[in-house]
Amino acid sequence: MEEGAQERPMKHEHVITTKGLTRSYGPETGIFDIDLAVPRGRVLGLVGPNGAGKTTLLSILAGMRAPGEGTVSAPEGRVLLCPDVPDFEPWLTAAEVVALSAHMVGEKAGDAEIARALDRVGLAEAADRRNGRFSRGMRQRLGLAAALVCRPEVLILDEPASGLDPQGRVDVLDLITSLRGECTIIVASHLLGDVQRICDDVAVLVRGRLVYQGPVADIADRGRPNAWYLRTHGPVDRLVGLLTAEPWVTRASRVEEDCVHLEAVDADSGELGIPRLLAEHGMPLVSMTGFQEDLESAFLSLTNRTDR
């Protein structure tokens, strides 16, 4: 097989894989040596700072751009890319856009299939309206309908919720969630909260290189705190002494009369040890506050470490 060519994979656990995928536009610009495995039937989030290479990678996965080096294994003709704001001929109605999309990929779609696709994205009542006057959110949903009617095996969404009002974001995210299992979805987004909400797995690009891929739960776990503020009833001097004597505590100090700042060797030790110690000594816990456990914390940790 020629370098950079696409091959149709066997039915297995990964619907798309890349090996040594590289497309360079100069030093530190492009993507470099990407080994990516996209699990079949799941939602994969692709995140990274601006200029990390997300758009380049997505366009190669969709077959719209050729890699400079490396290989891509993907379902031939069954990978569709939906841009952040799809651009359609303004005089076409929503139904005509969906019908044309199906025709262009050779998919038979009658009136019922077109109506079903529009209804699924909440545009049933706009089927006969020209899309030129659609809002940004409506065009994004129309793009999803145009993709869904083609029955893709892999659907790539580039910033599907960007620029939408809160309700529009919720609607689009709920729609993506409803597609889980019907097809494999790759979502590129800078909204890390959205990625954590809808994605099963995440891939992190930094300066064109893949620095992490795996379940969202695993990377979010990296953002768990190993430092907390504990508030109890009454003076905390005795609590500070008890904590300092524990082998899993690296630091304990009084912050206020009823508040202690505590650092542990790791998150698990603190989460297990703090309630146990308080229960053993009959000390009621008012509150226990650590850093937020989310994808953003882990993402910042990964990108800051890689940029050094």
From TrEMBL:
Residues 16-232 form the ABC transporter domain. Belongs to the ABC transporter superfamily. It comes from Nocardiopsis alba (strain ATCC BAA-2165 / BE74). InterPro entries: AAA+_ATPase (IPR003593), ABC_transporter-like_ATP-bd (IPR003439), P-loop_NTPase (IPR027417). This is ABC transporter family protein. Keywords: ATP-binding, Nucleotide-binding, Transport. One of its GO terms (molecular function) is ATP hydrolysis activity. The keyword Nucleus does not apply. SMART domains: AAA. Gene3D superfamilies: P-loop containing nucleotide triphosphate hydrolases. The keyword Nucleotide-binding applies.
